[in-house]
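[job 4471] stage=fold_predict status=RUNNING
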Amino acid sequence: MNISSKLIEEAVEAFASLPGIGKKTALRLVLHMIDRPTEFTEQFSGALAQMRTQIKICSNCFNISDEIECSICKDTARNDELLCVVENVRDLMAIEETGQFRGRYHVLGGLISPIDGIGPEQLNIMNLKPRIDSRGVKEVIMAVSPTIPGDTTIFFLSKHLEKSGINISTIARGVAFGGELEYADGFTLGRSIEARIPYQIRQTV
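[job 4471] inference complete, writing structure tokens
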């Protein structure tokens, strides 16, 4: 891509580093910014900088938040007996978008994947059981992507919570195996939450 300005080229590279944005789209965004008043660019960049420096992680569920405790954890209308375990904040947002779930969440921050060097100690797992025991949780819904790391994580968590006396369920497999939860359409994801099924630990021989 032949760009006459080094400044524009650097701005294009910055936009193109974002997921899903190629060089041509990045260039269109940069040229759009140039056409807008300087105040717009300052407001745009200021909002990003403020978000990055002031965003917090919820002390209860590890959702992103403006405060120490997120709005979902503060919502007294939520069902404390239902806890939905998700891989990341994007999956939490996808489930919230369906409007089918009114319980609480627990964000793991990833999935167990030995091949990638990710073990339970790298995730928000050790504080899950104490939270369940102290909050009167009766059912844990494993709403993670139906992939091999997802199944590995579900198995580990089920063993970890085996003696807690709670019901463990997984979302129905309306989401294709190998697919990412955040990319499932809202209807399918909502139905998968509603049609969740009990999880049974498969015994190995």
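[job 4471] summary: The chain is about 40% helix and 15% strand.
[job 4471] exit 0
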